[in-house]
Amino acid sequence: MPDITATLAATARLVDEELSRLLTMPATPESQVFDAMRYASLSGGKRIRPFVVMQSAGLFSVSEKSALRAACAVEMVHCYSLVHDDLPAMDDDDVRRGRPSVHRQFDEATAILAGDGLLTLAFEVLAHRDTHANPAVRTSLIGALAKAAGGHGMVGGQMMDLLADPDTISMPEVTRLQQMKTGALFAFACEAGPVLGNAPDAAFEAMRGYAHDLGLAFQITDDLLDAEGNQAEVGKQVGKDAAKRKATFVHLMGVERATAQAKLLAEQSVEHLAIFDEKADLLRQIARFSVERRR
Ligand code: GRG
Predict the structure, then answer these.
(1) Which residues make beta-bridge pairs with 231?
(2) Which of 136, 148, 191, 250 has the most neighbouring CB atoms within 10 Å?
(3) Does the beta carbon of 221 lie inside 6 Å of ligand 1?
(4) What is the position in ligand 1's atom list of the atom closest to the CA of 84?
(5) H or E segment and range at residue 268
(6) 93 CB within 6 A, ligand 1
(7) For ligand 1, atom 8, which residue shows the shortest CA distance?
């Protein structure tokens, strides 16, 4: 059985190398924005979304080059969301991935531009011929990432998060919020492989089911780490959700039920992979890792 920790580390190395290549910029008057984009994206994230892209692509014999470019695109969007989420106008966080957040390391304007730069570069990468020879496949990927990242996905989820009243929000509303804020990018990561590999409908359906449960399990664990985690391990300030009275799963369910729910969802996500053979074992393992992680 392949080892999840070693494979995750190997994927992170590949992603770091490719991101570094994609973010190379000669010294110019505007190069500060690239310095900030590099700082934001080459900073030790777990690379779980890229890992899911690479593994989902592996199920459909997609070339490593194609998969890696799609993996970098989703990581760029993820990193942009972290940079903007940390801004004073949003969550106002000084620490991210164990280092000063981008607006603390540079300044607010540079952080906004670095986020914008990462978001737009993600689409430039997908649109490039190196991502896939077939323009229809590239267009599908671009459409899917735009949908996941935009107002019907991550951005809409963030808006709901900022507006949510923790005293009145219901479980279905929190679930929808989190599916949009976090689940939508996981859904893209899971769908990228079948899109690149021109997979049959049944494979898309399986990956969508897997993504739905994995995204929620991952987010509940994120809430639990904020409630119970250790700042040194987590790499960012903890206890903020309670202090800011955020509408989280932990707020609605309490730690014990949220922990059980995350485990249940992780097991449920694995069930969706039943149509795949042992090639999907690392996707099975990452689902369990997602709820057992300490950061
Ligand atoms: C559009 C500004 C804007 C924000 C979108 C994604 C998001 C909303 C905000 C980021 C903050 C946050 C807690 C989001 C939930 C998603 C999540 C669990 C992020 C952390 O992801 P990890 O654990 O982080 O994969 P690393 O650092 O390992 O990449």
Answers:
(1) none
(2) 191
(3) no
(4) 2
(5) helix 249-271
(6) no
(7) 158
Domains (ranges, CATH) in the chain?
A: 4-292 (1.10.600.10)
Q: What one-letter code names the amino acid at 290?
A: S
The residue whose C-alpha atom lies closest to atom 20 belonging to ligand 1 is 222
- β-strand pairing of 95-96 with 99-100: antiparallel
Tens place of pLDDT for every residue, the chain, 295 residues? 778 999 999 999 999 999 999 999 888 999 999 999 999 999 889 999 999 999 999 999 999 999 999 999 999 999 999 999 999 999 999 999 999 999 999 999 999 999 999 999 999 999 999 999 999 999 999 999 999 999 999 999 999 999 999 999 999 999 999 999 999 999 999 999 999 999 999 999 999 999 999 999 999 999 999 999 888 888 888 998 999 899 999 999 999 999 999 999 999 999 999 999 999 999 999 999 999 988 8
Contact predicate 38/24, CB 8 Å: no
81 lines ligand 1 (CB under 6 A): yes
Give yes or no for residue 160 CB within 6 A of ligand 1: no
Query: Model's pTM, two decimal places?
Result: 0.96
Task: Determine which helix (DSSP H) or strand (DSSP E) holds 78, and give its type and residue range.
Answer: helix 64-85
Q: Measure the CA–CA gap between 76 and 46, rounded to whole angstroms.
A: 13
Task: Kindly tell me the burial class for residue 123, based on how many C-beta atoms sit within 10 Å of its own C-beta (0-12, 13-18, 19 or more).
Answer: middle
Type of residue found at 203: A
Query: Per the structure block, which two tokens stand in for 251?
Result: 């707020």
